Amino acid sequence: MPSEQDALLADHIPRGKYMPARPTDKRSPCPMINSLANHGYLPRNGQNVPAHQMKAAMHEAGISTALGATFVNTVYNIHAEPDTAPKASFPSRLWSIIRDPWSILARFGMRRPNQTDGAGTPVLDLDQLALPGAVEHDISLTRRDHAQKEGNCARQDDLVTELLACSADKKSITQNDLAALRRRRIAQQREENPGLKYGPLQHEMACGEIALILGVFGDGKSAACEYVAPFLREERLPIEEGWVKRWWWTLGLVELKVIASRVKRLVGMQIR
Question: Does the model's pTM come out above 0.90?
Answer without folding.
Answer: no
